[in-house]
Specification:
The protein is 34% helix and 18% strand. The chain is of the alpha+beta class. The protein has a 9-stranded mixed beta sheet with strand order 1-5-4-6-7-8-9-10-11, with helices on both faces. Strand 2 and strand 3 form a beta hairpin. Helix 3 packs antiparallel against helix 4 and helix 4 runs antiparallel to helix 5. It is globular and about 60 Å long. The structure holds 1,6-di-O-phosphono-alpha-D-fructofuranose. The site of 1,6-di-O-phosphono-alpha-D-fructofuranose has 11 residues, from loops. GO terms for molecular function: fructose 1,6-bisphosphate 1-phosphatase activity; metal ion binding. It catalyses: beta-D-fructose 1,6-bisphosphate + H2O = beta-D-fructose 6-phosphate + phosphate.
Length: 418
């Protein structure tokens, strides 16, 4: 197999969004074959939004019985387990993904397995503590942040199917020089919630994948600056253009959850066989749920409408004597996974010291909102649908309210005066 060297692009402050780069009018899949292979690629952006917001979820719900019956048929799963690999093959056979994309997703699963192993052994392999550097966000990098970023990047590069990668831990997107075909764009946060690692609390990886855009072809790039601009343009696509999104939770078990646009599927890592095994077919976030997950230490810095919303959740008279419960891990993947399963709302609002909150649009808010919508839930900034935001910078932050549809709508009734 050929080696896949990566070119770290020259630094260019303008490309970080201080002065947003112009975006092409539309993003067009490079090849007609991809149009056929990927479910929504031939649709308009509006149609795609509709697919993300409900149509696909309905389709998923329609198909759900067969998946559930398949799961129940499994009984002793070891007899006929649906593994992540067999599921990927099935998606390819159905024409939902193409073989190149299956390779990319498979490499992400491999990265997650390796990171799960590293996280599990961190305390006994000198991988706890700080790396001694800060990332582009000005956050102290943990040793495992750095190692996980390398694992994720190397797994994606080695596929020969990934053209550009953008990570929380890298200042600029990285162009993968040698690809056989595919050129998928992958954005990821290799280890979210890493400040929890040393205490052995849940952490996770988050990722999203896009088609490359035809208007910013890497082939046209003659110099480093053009290449960098092309990379940024390729990466800065709105969430409604995502072809896949997912996360992997490293906790009491390792759970890979993802969607390729036809519902949300969860796979639990069986450490005995080293395989992700289907454990959560066609996940649906409950329509409502009385759990809120916010860092209330920031309360005094929130807008009055968010304060009023939180106060209302805590008012026993409003909820038949039992107010909402508060649960907050401080690791988005863990808090979001619980919200997917039990219902409720996760929120990271803007505050006086951080008007756009803390979470990053490209590799946190958009992938999680894609999953939420695919599972029948919602992802909102409090003012607009997260998936409709056109990113202006790779590491852009936006407020996030995500989870059960009725809970996010209730929040919006305060923030949008609905
Ligand atoms: P770290 O990766 O630095 O631990 O940040 C995690 C995170 O981005 C997200 O996973 C949490 O939901 C959020 O930050 C928690 O932030 P607060 O500590 O400000 O509540």
């Amino acid at each position: 197999m050929a080696s896949h060297a990566a070119v770290d692009l020259p630094q260019k402050a303008a490309c970080l969004g201080a002065s947003p780069l112009p975006r092409p009018a539309r993003f067009v899949p490079r090849r007609a074959a991809r149009k056929a292979a990927c479910s929504a690629s031939g649709a308009s952006r509006t149609q795609k939004a509709a697919v993300s917001s409900g149509v696909a979820a309905k389709a998923a719900a329609t198909e759900a019985p067969s998946a559930n019956s398949a799961a129940s048929d499994q009984g002793d799963y070891s007899a006929c387990a649906t593994t992540f690999t067999t599921w990927l093959i099935k998606q390819e056979q159905l024409g939902i993904i193409d073989s190149e994309f299956a390779v990319v997703l498979s490499s992400i699963a491999l990265a997650c397995k390796q990171i799960a192993s590293l996280v599990g052994r961190a305390g006994i392999s000198n991988l706890t503590g700080l790396a001694g550097e800060e990332n582009v966000q000005g956050e102290a990098q943990k040793k495992l942040d750095v190692v996980s970023n390398t694992v994720f990047s190397n797994c994606l590069r080695s596929t020969g199917r990934t053209g550009i990668i953008a990570s929380e831990e890298e200042e600029f997107p990285v162009f993968v020089e040698e690809t056989y075909s595919g050129n998928y764009v992958v954005v990821f946060d290799p280890l979210d919630g890493s400040s929890n690692i040393d205490a052995g609390i849940s952490v996770g990886s988050i990722f999203g994948a896009y088609l490359p855009s035809e208007e910013c072809s890497m082939e046209d790039a003659e110099d480093g600056e053009t290449l960098l601009n092309n990379c940024v343009l390729n990466v800065c696509q709105p969430g409604n253009m995502l072809k896949a999104a997912g996360y992997c939770l490293y906790s009491t078990s390792t759970v890979l959850v993802l969607s390729v646009g036809n519902g949300v599927f969860g796979f639990t890592l069986d450490p005995l066989i080293g395989e992700f095994v289907m454990s959560h077919p066609y996940m649906q976030v409950p329509e409502s749920g009385k759990i809120y997950s916010f860092n209330e230490g920031n309360y005094d810095m929130w807008d009055d409408d968010v304060k009023a919303y939180i106060n209302s959740l805590k008012d026993p008279d409003k909820w038949g004597g039992k107010p909402y419960s508060s649960r907050y891990i401080g690791a988005l993947v863990g808090d979001f996974h619980r919200t997917m399963l039990y219902g409720g709302i996760y929120g990271y609002p803007g505050a006086t010291n951080a008007p756009n909150g803390k979470l990053r649009l490209l590799y946190e808010c958009a992938p999680m909102s894609f999953l939420a919508e695919q599972a029948g839930g919602m992802g909102s900034t409090g003012k607009e649908r997260v998936l409709d935001i056109d990113p202006t910078a790779v590491h852009q932050r936006v407020p996030l309210f995500i989870g059960s549809k009725k809970e996010v709508e209730y929040l919006e009734s305060f923030t949008m005066g609905k």
